[in-house]
Amino acid sequence: MAKQVIQAEFAKERILTENSDQARDLYNTSRFGKLLDNGRVQLSLLEALYLLEKKRLEVLDGRNKPIPFEKFLKKAEKIEPNFWVRYVVFKDLRNRGYIVKTALKFGADFRVYERGVKPGEDHAKWVVFPVHEINSLTWHEFAAKNRVAHSTKKRLMIGVVDDEGDVSYWEVRWIRP
Fold this sequence. Notes:
The protein has five helices and ten strands. The protein has helices at residues 21-30, 45-53, 69-79, 83-95, 139-151, and strands at 6-11, 14-17, 34-35, 41-43, 57-60, 99-102, 110-113, 126-132, 155-161, 167-172. Strand 6 and strand 7 form a beta hairpin. The termini are far apart.
């Protein structure tokens, strides 16, 4: 049976789904978004673009017209810095079966859970920082990212995106010689 496309609306910097079993199933089975008291699911721009690309979601503008992928992407890029690089890493991790959530309170872009682990069941294993291959970090910035991971008892992962949109992952850990 084909999955039904979920309707959603663009509401400032977030996407709100319709109040439906399909929307709640998306949250319950794959932990997309955040379940609200009114039965709707609030999605991040990254989650919404991913579901739009997978043809699981239709996002409507203020005039009830569907927003196509490219137009949605342009709107999101105006709202969130480094959106495309972050999206490429988000999409790659999701396609590999990981649950990816925001990690702003940890000072990182994402927290990523082991396959099969849902938020609330256990802690995230990694904090992830997406970067484009042409960007560089100072040793101070690198050490700060490593401290964030260490202080939150997570592993640091850098997701490096190249010009073709491929992602390489580098995991960094403290060691005691």
